[in-house]
């Protein structure tokens, strides 16, 4: 496996530390003018999500982690695994467990495309796109004329996610939602 | 994620203007004091032997000569001018150091280096203070010894602590296997960088003086309180290392010994040895006049002037955009 030496360190690098895959968040280069250089590095452990701080001497290296992000279409769940398929035409499928899917489960819609992070060939995390479009399956009846005023109500989407929406939203409408904040963005016009 | 386009400068128009004003200020300062501005090669046959300075090899081929190095400082050439009778000189030049990139480092940076005939380190520190405080409008620096700074912030006496205890102090940052092959100066550098430096020059600028002889580089060494200390000084403002100065070593045989010691250290740490710069050694042999010299980072001086924390804010195009 390849390795990265300190002068290749940068944010976004995926490396192995104490046997766990980590992503480098920050790399601070420190050196007294005539002295030994060090790199103070912040890394997020991709297994535990914990942030580690480590110091390296100039010239030391870390093993690269076999971590890659792949676009995959969500197919279905069998209750234990959520199955994804590569969108590169290979039709290769990957089962992701509940730990890998995590909170993304509430944004999973069949045939939509997600970023699946593979570690040593197995799904480690599943990340939704920043915006998803989902149908409202349950919400209180809308009120006519309430388009401009504030006020909101909860609406349940087809994936089970509950978001706050304006009062005029009705069952059957398709909404654009920001998955990072869980906020309603807009209605999606149906053709 | 898409890469951000790099065509735009990372420094603001105000920072670019301030850089031009800084250059004018520096040139005015030395013109008034009748110090001669010189230019020496940025591209030369030899690099430096310093174990912690990595030059950038240049793949030149001209007039039957190949290879060469981008200079990490104009020191050797400027000392050749001094030996040839130039009198006091200064230079504003681009210098190059491989692998150095961070909020305070760019592999290519602007250095102001000057030499004053007949000055010792104390007199040169006064002139550094005139220049820096004249430009920044800051209080004049106090002097603190390397030993006192280490005692205050790292709780370590750099001259008395045993190697074993010193290594133990490094365990806060490094794993035991990382410390195993770190030498005494490496350990001290670690403490300097992480415990001491962030606290230096916080309230008012501070000169650190009296470095251990092992960190003398090209400075003279004398005995202070029974310990050999280097006539070397650095200026810190707000935790930022701004300059490095020496009462210059003029003893040719001692100079050669230090170069050879550097190369031995390089060999120990698996770095290639560097050919000694014969022309420079010949110049020292011919007679370097008594002088003090200092190198000051102009990009960092501008960072302090503008109160910014990242060198990219004062560089038109830092390395990633160059």
Task: Walk me through the structure.
With 191 residues, chain A is mainly beta. Helix content of chain A is 2%, strand content 52%. In chain A, the strands form four sheets. Chain A has a five-stranded antiparallel sheet. Chain B has helices spanning 13-32, 75-83, 121-136, 146-154, 163-169, 176-180, 184-196, 252-268, 278-287, 298-306, and strands at residues 36-37, 43-44, 56-57, 61-62, 65-66, 69-70, 89-96, 108-117, 142-145, 206-212, 221-224, 227-237, 240-247, 291-297. In chain B, β11 (221-224) and β12 (227-237) form a beta hairpin. The chains are: A mainly beta (191), B alpha+beta (322). Chains A and B meet through β3 and β5 of A and α7 of B.
Number of distinct helices of chain B = 10
Count all strands of chain B and give the number. Answer: 14
> Termini of chain A, distance in Å?
51 Å
* Residue runs with pLDDT of under 50 for 5 or more positions of chain B: none
Oligomeric form of this entry? heterodimer
pLDDT averaged residue by residue of chain A: 92
Strand content of chain B: 15-25%
Strand order of the largest sheet of chain A: 9-8-7-10-11
Query: Which blocks of ≥5 consecutive residues of chain A have pLDDT under 50?
Result: none
- Proportion of strand residues of chain A: over 45%
State the end-to-end CA separation of chain B: 21 Å
Shape of chain B: globular
**Order of H and E elements of chain B:** HEEEEEEHEEHEHHHHEEEEHHEH
Largest β-sheet summary of chain B: 9 strands, mixed
- Mind telling me the C-alpha Rg of chain A? 22 Å
- Rough outline of chain A: elongated
Please write the string of helix (H) and strand (E) elements of chain A.
Answer: EEEEEEEEEHEEEEEEE
Give the tally of β-strands of chain A: 16
């Amino acid at each position: 496996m390849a390795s990265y030496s300190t002068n290749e360190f940068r944010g976004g690098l995926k490396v192995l530390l104490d046997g766990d895959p980590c992503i480098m968040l920050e790399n601070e280069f420190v050196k007294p003018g005539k002295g030994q250089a060090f790199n103070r590095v912040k890394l997020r452990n991709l297994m535990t999500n914990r942030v580690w701080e480590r110091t390296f001497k100039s010239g030391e290296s870390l093993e690269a982690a076999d971590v890659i992000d792949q676009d995959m279409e969500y197919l279905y769940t069998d209750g234990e695994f959520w199955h994804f398929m590569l969108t590169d035409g290979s039709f290769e499928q990957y089962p992701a467990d509940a730990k890998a899917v995590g909170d993304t489960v509430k944004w999973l819609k069949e045939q939509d495309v997600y970023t699946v992070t593979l570690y040593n060939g197995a799904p480690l995390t599943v990340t939704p796109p920043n915006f998803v479009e989902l149908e409202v399956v349950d919400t209180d009846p809308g009120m006519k004329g309430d388009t401009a005023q504030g006020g909101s109500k909860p609406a349940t989407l087809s994936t089970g996610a509950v978001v706050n929406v304006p009062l005029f939203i009705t069952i059957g409408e398709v909404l654009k939602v920001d998955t990072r904040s869980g906020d309603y963005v807009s209605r999606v016009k149906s053709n | 994620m898409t890469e951000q386009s790099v065509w735009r400068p990372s420094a603001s128009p105000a920072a670019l203007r301030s850089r031009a004003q800084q250059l004018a200020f520096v040139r005015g300062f030395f013109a008034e004091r009748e110090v001669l501005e010189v230019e020496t090669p940025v591209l030369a046959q030899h690099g430096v032997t310093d174990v912690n300075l990595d030059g950038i090899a240049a793949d030149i081929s001209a007039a039957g000569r190949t290879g060469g190095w981008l200079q990490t400082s104009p020191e050797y050439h400027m000392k050749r001018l001094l030996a040839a009778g130039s009198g006091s000189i200064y230079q504003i030049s681009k210098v190059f150091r491989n692998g150095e990139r961070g909020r305070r480092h760019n592999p290519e940076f602007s250095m102001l280096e000057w030499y004053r005939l007949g000055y010792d380190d104390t007199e040169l520190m006064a002139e550094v203070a005139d220049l820096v405080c004249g430009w920044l409008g800051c209080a004049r620096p106090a002097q603190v010894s390397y030993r006192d700074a280490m005692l205050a912030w790292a709780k370590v006496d750099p001259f008395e602590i045993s190697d074993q205890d010193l290594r133990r102090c490094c365990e806060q940052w490094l794993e035991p296997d990382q410390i195993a092959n770190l030498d005494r100066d490496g350990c001290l550098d670690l403490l300097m960088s992480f415990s001491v430096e962030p606290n230096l020059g916080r309230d008012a600028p501070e000169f650190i003086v009296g470095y251990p002889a092992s960190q003398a580089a090209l400075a003279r060494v004398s005995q202070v309180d029974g310990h050999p200390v280097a006539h070397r000084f650095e200026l810190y403002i707000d935790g930022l290392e701004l300059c490095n100065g020496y009462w210059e070593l003029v003893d040719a045989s001692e100079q050669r010994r230090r170069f050879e010691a550097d190369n031995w250290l390089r060999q120990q740490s698996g770095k290639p040895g560097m050919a000694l710069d014969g022309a420079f050694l010949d110049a020292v042999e011919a007679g370097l006049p008594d002088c003090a010299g200092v190198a000051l980072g102009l990009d960092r001086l501008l960072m302090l002037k503008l109160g910014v924390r990242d060198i990219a804010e004062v560089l038109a195009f830092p390395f990633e955009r160059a």
